[in-house]
Amino acid sequence: MRIWLGLAIAIVLLDQASKWWIVSHFQLGDSATISSFFNIVRAHNPGAAFSLLADAGGWQRWFFTVIGLGATLFILWLLRSHHTQKLFSFSLACIMGGAVGNVIDRLMHGYVIDMLDFHFRWLEPIFWGGHFPTFNVADMAITAGAIGLVLDEIRRARRSR
Asked: What range defines the domain where residue 9 resides?
């Protein structure tokens, strides 16, 4: 199980280091153009994914913190029981690392610090100015973990046929 906890800790450290760098070098709303489709920005998200409940008045900070901590405890229990299942455990470790990274932000700041801003013209009908919602390393880890869980379940279903 140590390898999965190590992966989760590495994700938390990378996530927090990237957020520290953004806070040290950017003011809220600052942006640096990296390419025609990618910017580094400093954004604060008091809500969840896609700014869900961002304008809820403050209670969402504690709601999402409790969900993140609860998910972490559940994942630790799952990892203890299934640590030999590589893709499943890898996916859980990614989700746990991302959840802990965002919980740290909520506890320290009251919001999550986001910095990766991708924008494409073909996204304009869906997102304002074609900008996909800004995200961070923790969000990438959670997404990678969710994709891994889906792939693991597809693989498991195919084997059972």
From this structure: 2-21+39-160
